Amino acid sequence: MNEKQLLTQIQAVSLIAIDLHLFLDTHPNDTKALQDYEKVSKQFQTLKDQYEKQYGPLVSFGHQSITNHNEWVSKPWPWQNK
Questions:
Q1: How many angstroms separate the CA atoms of 37 and 66, rounded?
Q2: pTM, whole model, 2 decimals?
Q3: Both ends of the chain: CA-CA distance in Å?
Q4: 36 contacts: CB under 8 Å, gap ≥ 6
């Protein structure tokens, strides 16, 4: 998967996770929705880790390594890549 495809996949999975999270706010006992949310959350984390390993951090905070702390500002923003 190239960078644009990977970022698009991250955005799609993120939207699904947000929708499931909102659904679970009103349906907290829905075990199928909870299972789906856990699955999508793991998928999101895997895709995010893959993106950051290949192309650099998606956000300027969080769990990124601090070995190259200026990587965030030295590369184009994720949405600027074509």
A1: 30
A2: 0.72
A3: 14
A4: 20
Contact partners, residue 44, CB within 8 Å, separation at least 6: 10, 13, 14, 17
SS3 35: helix
Contact call for residues 52 and 32 (beta carbons, < 8 A):
no
Residue 40's nearest CA partner among 14, 6, 11 is 14
Over residues 14-59, the pLDDT tens digits come to: 999 999 999 999 999 999 999 999 999 999 999 999 998 998 888 7
Distance CA 58, CA 49 (A): 10
Q: How many CA atoms lie within 13 A of 54 on its CB side?
A: 14
Buried b (16+ CB within 10 A) or exposed e, 13-38: bbebbeebeeeeeeeeeeeebeebbe
